[in-house]
Please model this.
Amino acid sequence: MNRMDCKGDGWSSPHRTPRVFWFSTFALTAVLLLGACGRSPQPSISVPGGEWREFEGTWIAAGTRQVLSLGGDRSASIARFSGSLALTGPARVAVGFRADAVVFDDTQTGGVGRAVWTDEHGDKVYSELREVVSPAGNKIIGTIFGGTGRYAGATGTYEFSWRFLVETEDGTVQGQSTGLKGRIHIASPSAAAGSGGSRS
Model:
């Protein structure tokens, strides 16, 4: 994600002190894919409606970023990322998701973005992203605001830091999350039907 950096904690540009945001190297991606191929298929996870589910995981992705200089050390960027989100823990709502995001970042005011996670059934989770700056280190906060299928009417929050691992002159970037954790509330079927799937 553009300027959602990789400074060991946020999502600004890798040209600044490294923060941590998301997209892994080709090598890491290859290792994960090989590992997935070596495992037997995992069964779908049944998620009862009307309860909170906590989760942890790792988000890795790659994409492109365009940067606009605003004079001095300030710049703005916009980026689009695609990758995978692998979840762990007994309360997870799925084994993993395809994860896509678009991000706008200003090195002075921080970044905002939107993300869509898609599970193996094609059901989606929608969330907003924002960068929170603090002396302890920048973090990215996700706010879940709905989805489709079994995630219709879902709410929740998650947080993580991001580290860029690869950045090329043509704007190609890769990285991965650290410390990703959160919780999601799956609406009951009747509530989900009334929600219309997501907010407008």
About this structure: The longest strand covers residues 51-69. Residues 1-9, 13-42 have pLDDT under 50 and may be disordered. The two ends are 24 Å apart (CA to CA). Helices lie at 26-38, 189-195.
